[in-house]
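Technical note accompanying the year-one report. For the benefit of new consortium partners, we illustrate the data format agreed upon in the data management plan: each record pairs a sequence with a structure-token string. No post-processing was applied to the example shown here.
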Amino acid sequence: MNILLVSQCDKRALTETRRILDQFAERRGDRVWQTPITQAGLDTLRKLLRKTARKNTAVACHWLRGRDHSELMWIVGDARRFNAQGSVPTNTTQSDVLRDHDENDWLTGEDIRLVATLAALFHDLGKACEAFQMRLRSKQKLPANLYRHEWVSLRLIQAFVGQDDDASWLARLQDAAQMTTVNWKKHLKQAALRDGEDAQARGNKPFTDGVLPPLAAAVCWLVLSHHRLPVSNDETLTAARIDTGLCDLNSQWNQPFDNVTVKEAKPYWQFPYGLPCDDKLWRERVADIARQLAARQSAATPWLDQPYPLHLARLTLMLADHHFSSQTVKQGWLAGKEDETAFANTLSHPQKNDPKHQGRQFNQTLPEHLNGVARHALSTARALPDIARALPTLGRHPLLQKRSADPRFAWQDKAYDLAASLRERAAAHGAFVVNLASTGCGKTLANARIMYALARPDTGFRCAFALGLRTLTLQTGHAFRDKLNLGEDQLAIRVGGAASRELFEQQAKDAETAAEATGSASSEALLDEDSAIHFEGNPDHPLLQQLSHDPRFNALLAAPLLVCTIDHLTPATEGTRGGRQIAPMLRLLSSDLVLDEPDDFSVEDMPALTRLVYWAGLLGSRVLLSSATLPPALVQCLFDAWLAGRAQYQQHRGQPGLPLDACCLWVDENGSHAANCGDSASFAAQHLAFARRRSDWLASQKPRRTAALLPLTGVPRDEKNLFEPLASLLREQAWQLHAANHDCDPHTGKRVSIGLIRLAHIDKIYPLARALYAQAAPAGSRIHLCVYHSQYPLLLRSAIERRLDAALTRHKREALFSLPDIRARLDGSPAEDHLFIVLSSPVSEVGRDHSYNWAIAEPSSMRSLIQLSGRVRRHWPEPYETPNLLILQHSLAAWLGQRPAYCRPGFENGNFKLKAHDLGTLLPESDYRHPDARPRLLPRADLQPEYRLVDLEHARLQADLNQTHMPAQRRGESDQARLCAASCWAMPRASLHGALQKKQPFRQSHGEEWEMVVLPDEDGGIRLIRREEGDKKWEVRESDNNHLIHPISDDELLTGQDIRPWGNEDYLTELAALAATMDMEDTACARRYGGFSLRVDSNNLQGWHFHPALGFCQKRD
């Protein structure tokens, strides 16, 4: 390609960019270069420019595509020096005539700045107490604090405020005579607020209405919560008490301790080194901020009822404290001798190992720390309105604008056009989008195109795509990277563990190598014609400067597109663990949000998901929900949460007085619809109308899957004798499905099918697999069995997924027979029929882009059946009426008499029980005969959750998501509030403490789990090691648990004729190959890639069976 490079750099940046550009291109002027270049060369040039970029860097690259046509490819550095097409202005002035960048839509931005700065000046007052200073000076490990320094700080402020209103105590802050250590200590003693020492303090709850004026209450809350939100240890908290929980807050919420003696409490209320009041600079800053607050109306603002400014003030304080506390000690910081000075902190672990600080222990004095954090809070609050403009964005992107060539995806163009037409309105009112397109219709790319269409082209596109599954996240991220030609600086992929991502990346490299080996790489375009403009943002922005030292923050914030597991964003709403809230909050504040398959989360996880959507609305994000099986209760719940957040946002951002009238959009492969919805009822009506239209359209489509119920005839109802007859039944049914749904090998004529047997629970997979291996395949056939679930060491699970991805990506049906693995198995056996069977847990039903010939499913819920059916003939859109899906008429739990039976996974629980568990009575034939999303889209008018499986799902979701009160007729008492997913916005003050997060955690573990790793031993075998957290943050403790592993030999497992594992990776062989690829030593490689989690029954710990073809399974007598 032929490119033109234009530099608008200044000062030293101009010299540096000239040095780099001169190596790649010829000058056509003082600031212009031109050259032909390859894509690889251009990528290298851009990386070099980005690596050396500074605030005065500004380089635009144009692709000269013809005599009269050029396209802007990218800008490195300050994009404001060019327009959207990359042109340079004819003339410029340094006078900001319009001052449009100084103006922002933050209506309460100044209030946030002042309150956060005042809280910063007070936030660590409690560190002056004797107990904290002794802790800093102690060489030994001391027991936990009886009262944390945040609580001591709060009591000092509360005592100083006393009975005054906000105007009065702000005036006293400006009076130097009032601002002395003696005076503050006198107020503390007179107020009798010394917990553990003053009897009256125990009953004094600072946030009870009337105790503190509004501004003082806000400052006290910020001080108390600047590390973590307060949480009660009372497990009996009701919804009503959580709603008013702030009024019940006492010292126990900050640090739970009972029966504290006066002697033990005294050191927390003694201040041997005085208070920061003795520091002149601190007093002057406090007086200055108090003067500014007193002059504003914010002193009368009901702060605790306004989550937007309050939480952003907390974010400002946390970020300032986090950054300033990380600063290394500088010469001259100490204001006095160590034995006469109150300190705020000691050197961090890395700083102590630095030779420059050898022999030192203390870092910042307390006054210096408070002043420094206040200074940073001031600059942080001023920088917040500009954060979205300062972060990198994705500008013009031809592939996101490109019309679909395939008629199957033409619906995406209509959705894109409709979204683009709503762009200006969505900018003012926000946007809430629901994508109900069927599985396999390209929803992933459509979601990106819709959100891109809603964004302004001149400012660029930023969006976070949040998913539930690790594998789906990696798959989606790489789909974006490949289909949209995005680089690592434009797209970030974040999953739970770095090891998972690294293995996935290695698989991608292996696939590229294979493509080169087969010659298919040469079919790829030589030039990248569809690259996007990348707006670099402003790396010198104050906030980004504060975060630049932490790569985890940058990974979450810097890239315009973020594809991540949802647990990277949920900390934005939690606030119960240190600074983990900062980066995800900034992400939501600066980008839109897409939730992929939100209905895949369990009902227990829905409150946390709802909190995330509420916070997305609160922070101004547009939101898109994407799933073919979204039930109306869930859609309504998430819209209500987003709208409640949006209402708070519009009170403090945008045009004053703008009515709440959200821009809503519904899309599927049949069409798109937009409406303005300012309340819950109007949205519900619009969604119902769209769902009905979609349901009618689905009913008119010719089917691709035909299902039938499979009775468990001849299978005993006791677990010990269950699996051998069950294996025989499933083997026979698999053979019949294979006979009706196979493909023929074009080389040999052999019949081949790939089928899925899905079981609900891992503990049933192991004995069923052993029973299958003990039985012979039908005459003339060979069965290749792959067991797939989560209880494998990571590298083995990755190998299984690599094999399945290769075989089940079947857009071209004949490609299967070219795979070396499949080819070798077909040619190595005389059998004419080959059944490739995947015996899997529910991990196979969502997220994998796999296409099976047939499937047998153990039922859990209607949703799981619909999702699993979407894996059958997924890549073949032609109508097909041959039966290819069997559903067990009972779940195995129901067959064995367990109650509730359809749970974990499923919707049955103690409050929602089915009267019967036979699908013949629970499911009408119309619901399962040709499985599609209709049963999930429209609940029946008269739900019967005790008698119908589909009704159970709708009733449970309606109750647990949207019902905020328990009906009196069900309880025999008056209506009272109850906890549900909607509680996060229905109880606004609940966001000021952590009780909801504790009662409704995200992904609560049911039972104990151990983190394990499989290491090689010196004798050529393996060792099972348990990993635990050590006493310190950076420590990991390992214990040998080799006595708990019970290996199974091949001779013991493989006793049936003509049934063998489909892939039988030996752990040590896979480890050696991976170690060689990664250039690592075997043991180090195993520590990184051999980890996994195992569930533990502490009351009956007998260990685990293990075979590479089966994974780990708990041993039971």
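Partners are asked to follow this layout when depositing records. The chain has 46 helices and 32 strands.
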